[in-house]
Amino acid sequence: MSARRTYPLPEGACIWMEAGVIDYRLCNRSFDCENCALDQALRGGLEEHIAEEQESPSSLPATRFHRSHLWVRETLTCGEWMIGLDHHALSSFSRPMSLSLPRPGRAIAQGDELLALLVDGEALRWSAPVAVFVLERNDRWVDDAATLQAAPYTDGWAALVKFPECPADQIWMARQSMDALERSEHEALKQLVTAGMNANRAAGVTAPDGGRLIAPPDQLLPLRDYLAFLRVRWDLLPAGC
């Protein structure tokens, strides 16, 4: 039996193996292993992961993102778009959550409520970045939210809509820009949690190297404080709407 050899990896590295070769890359998914598509692929479901990550103009339409963590993708039917919440928004809570979705046939003006995420009797409410007409909603969110939460860009779409005009690049961004925005949000959240720490505690709430939070944010902060932070960062509707 050969001895196992271990090697130090950079902070936040994710290991994967391809063609028998072990390699790593830095995590760009907020270190959320439980909801990470790559981690799920390593434990099974590789085909779905590849289909999601290797989008190209020659295969599936590209997914575009809004700074509020909405995403859109044009379907194969001209003029129809899927819209939903991205993995960052759906993985922001460790407790059970659900979505409140608009009814089909409804026209939603820019700035009006499009959908809401419900958790422990509280709600985060998203306004429509542009006017939309709702064709269909994904009613699986009523009975199977936990499953859809782990598949935001496949089964986890929220509604099928039409836009008066094609989504503009000034409003919707590419995945790389959204990843950069998520990293800045993580740093802001870490500062918020650290600011509320008890200075007399022997152990803090972040990793020893000052890295990622070692517990979900909704367990480190009072829920209402955490929701208030998200409303400001994501430019959501006020709590009383």
List keywords for this structure.
241 residues; alpha+beta; 8 helices; six-stranded antiparallel β-sheet
Order of helices and strands: EEHHEEEHEEEEEHHEHHH
Tertiary shape: globular
What is the gyration radius calculated from CA atoms?
A: 19 Å
- Give the strand order, joined by hyphens, for the main sheet: 3-4-5-11-10-7
Please report the distance between the alpha carbons of the first and last residues. Answer: 65 Å
- Determine the structural class based on helices, strands and strand pairing: alpha+beta
**Please, how many helices?**
8
Quaternary organisation of the protein chains: single chain
Biggest β-sheet strands, sense, barrel: 6 strands, antiparallel
Descriptive account of the structure:
The chain is of the alpha+beta class and 241 residues long. It is built from 8 helices and 11 strands. A 6-stranded antiparallel sheet has the order 3-4-5-11-10-7. It has a 3-stranded antiparallel sheet with strand order 6-8-9. The chain is globular. Mean pLDDT is 79; it is low at 1-23, 44-58 and 199-205.
